[in-house]
Design a protein that fits this description.
By secondary structure, this protein is mainly alpha-helical. The chain has 9 helices and 5 strands. A 3-stranded parallel sheet has the order 3-4-5, sandwiched between helices. The protein has a two-stranded parallel ribbon with strand order 1-2.
Length: about 180
Amino acid sequence: MLPGSRTQEVKAMLDKMIKLSSSFPQAQFVIAAVDSLEESVYTPAIRAGLKVVYNQTYDLLSHAVAAVVTSGTATLETALFRVPQIVVYETSPVTYFFAKRLVKIDFISLVNLIAEKEVVKELIQDDFSIENLKKELNLILSNPVYKGHMLQGYDLIKERLGETSASENTADLILNTLN
């Protein structure tokens, strides 16, 4: 689970990520943490018995079967590691209200923006619920066709990014989408 890199973000995402873990007792959930945040931000995860690992996101992704990822650059990194994922994000209702009216895009995750279609499920704001998380994680873990479509989408993203200057190609794709 990648709850983000900012304190407010982690606090907003972590509670539901922790609750999700109790619905899958056979799985080992690990929180990808960053040492730039206070350790206390991750205390709820530790109290719930989850392992919290600092500054080893790429190592975690290289072993992951699936991921729950807070929207941001981590969604693209997760896709490049070919880890099936659920993208989540929640902010204050007021912030969401204004952002929804000011920014006119079909997707929030870099994965879907680059692909220009839904490759990964985005659970944003009211859709970010325990029930929706369980449903999507079950699909990833138990439906090889669903997982396969996601991996095919990752192949498209890798093709669009090309082998050279992925950051420039990503920026160009996002700017074209916004225009």
